[in-house]
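Before going further, learn to read the protein records used in this course. Taken together, the tokens spell out the fold as the letters spell out the chain. A record is reproduced here so that you can trace the correspondence yourselves:

***
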Amino acid sequence: MTRRTAARAWRWGNIPIPQAQLAGLGIGLLLQVVRPWSLPWPAWIGQLGGWPLILAGLWLGAWAVRAAAGVDLERPDQLVDTGPYAFSRNPMYLAWTVDYVGVALVAGTAWPLLLLPAVLVVTQVVVLGEERSLERRFGSAYRSYKASVRRYL
């Protein structure tokens, strides 16, 4: 693949806006301003743990977007089962969640971590809806993929 073809293959529309994660982080950081609640360890520990998570999440997300570059994820015409999709049916949601935890650790605030269960519930509801849609669209091919690849990890 040439550089020009690769540039055309990258679909910015395939980068999801993680509404639950953004809302959780936004509310958590706002709560931190209004009512500070720091994590119970020195800031350097949060930095030490958070930055690798942020980098890992960004790497996983970029890998997932790259693997799905040939497909419009809003209206898929084929299943993506290569790259990280061979190991997780939802690597982008996984990447955003890893980034979420990393940002909370780097920011040194407990609020986003307290909100994380609600963020995960909302994400799960969205994922289940997407799975129903994919099953309607791809039928037995999606059921087979679903049976062989875990939802998240």
Remarks:
- Confidence is low (pLDDT under 50) at residues 1-8.
- Residues 135 and 142 are 6 Å apart (CA to CA).
